[in-house]
Queue: 3 jobs
Job 1
Amino acid sequence: MNWTYVFQTKDQIGTFFYFPSLNFHKAGGGFGPIRVNNRAIIAVPFPKPEAEFDLLIGDWYQHNFKDVRSKLNTTVWAYHMPPDGMLMNGKGPYLDPFTKAHESFTVTRGKTYRFRIANVGIAWSINFRIQKHQMVVVETEGSYTNQITLDSLDVHVGQSYSVLVTANQEAADYYIVASPKLSNATDNSSLVGRAVLHYDNSTTTPNGPLPKGPDPFDLDFSLNQAKSIRWNLTAGAARPNPQGTFNVSNVTLSQTFILQGSIIDINGVPRYTLNNVSYTTPDTPLKLADNFINGSDVYNLDEFPVNSSNPVAVDGTFVATGNHKGWLEIVFKNDLNVMDSWHLDGFGFYVVGILRIKTLSIVPKQSLYRGEIFIAPVLLATKFVLLRKASCRTT
């Protein structure tokens, strides 16, 4: 069966990827990169690179996703079934004895290249780095950023970044590494993604140890790096006017949702819940149910606790109503000991506060507009969403 999607990339530029978002289908693949280029009349805030490379990185299960999904529905496996490996563009790690192919990118000394990196995995945040090369972050999920130079970059599940890499080393081959966060994976483990940066006149293979990354358990590194990536206020993006023309600090909020994730057993089955509600995928897609039968017998409208937790954990299909063209503030809380990533299908948002204590640090002036946010353990984060869609119910 083939599907063709037609959509307008109005008011968007940048680096994205497509993926299935329900029923663990993402673990079966079905994802790919999306590039949205600037219109010719709008200047890009960096010189045109020699070439662009898409790099999809993600953890991977060797078993069929349906089998994995079934096991994760049991208390025996739910908390003890990590992914089996890390893939780069669907290929196994360089020199891994169980895989033949590995990813490689060919560059010319003295040239600069744009890598569009996305974490397409299920569970693990990653730290990305290239042996003996620095990278300049220039864009994330449709927003040009202030350009900062990094030795390594944390990319959390669902996030996408553009970085510029200049081939300024001796002609050779160099390791490209993606290692999992909150894991003790060793360098030669299949859990560490390894690819090759190949200079076009190189005659040597990568050598030496893998480039060392930050402590995978150092949450402050992840948090401080995320807070350092800010909106470029003077660059144009999808429109000629600068991104900073709009100041989110002037908006009037119409709604506030406070959402807290937790892990709990419901009827003996382990579940991840949001405000003590575990989402159940209905047989009828929500959009069809909304358009043709007004949701009757498919979902419960406005029964979801948007500012508190249900006293008892439940399964269900709950839909919350948003105010069309209103500004919604969403506050995420994470009391768990794992990274928590959030994505709103069809929406971007302004990240306006992020902190690891009970008081938020609000920084609306350079609030980064993006499509994905990670919430580290014991972290509070808030974002603003403009509900611009004609149908603005969110799940």
Job 2
Amino acid sequence: MKKTEKILKSELAKIKSIRRRTGEVVPFDLERVARAVFKAFEVTGEGGEEESQEIAKRVFRMLLDLRSELVNARKGAKFLPTVEMVQDFVEKELMKNSFMDTAKEYILYRNKRSELRKAFGPVPETVKLAV
């Protein structure tokens, strides 16, 4: 069983989809968040799999909190997180948990990818699968 699956399935069902930068709506994958954090930890050596899973769970809880606020403020409102939103939350959680070098690497990586998207357009699907 994947470690992020320890979050109750009823909670996981509350956020089913995410909007990519292209506007495409795809299934939300918490493991993908954990993998991205783990890759950043591999660069810095500040953490490992356990820490990446914990950061991913905390990001998910932040999304749930934001969803609750939105739904409570506007009855019947739909919540669809974006890739940018999730990445912003990852940065905040890394800094909040004193993984400063990892947060810096994560931010630099995001900026580099942003520049590449501006220069060359969207990242091909085959490259996305590597992340």
Job 3
Amino acid sequence: MNHTPTWTLTDMDNRDETGAPHQITGPPDHLIPYLDGPVRNDLRTAQAATRLDQLITAYRNHDIDCARHLGPVLAIYTEVIRDENA
């Protein structure tokens, strides 16, 4: 049975009042607006914007390996909570 994966996105650059990194959990498609909103607004270079576009593509494709590879450059860490094939 195929299920939509559930991932947790941790943004090390955006923190709450206690200093904890911002985290959100959900299907990859539901996490993209955060990447394309607050994360994109924090970018300073064209190279970072290109990397973010690649990361968003990895999320759209449910490519966790690519997301884990691309994200840390942007201080974004992605973990699987539930795999789509589980």
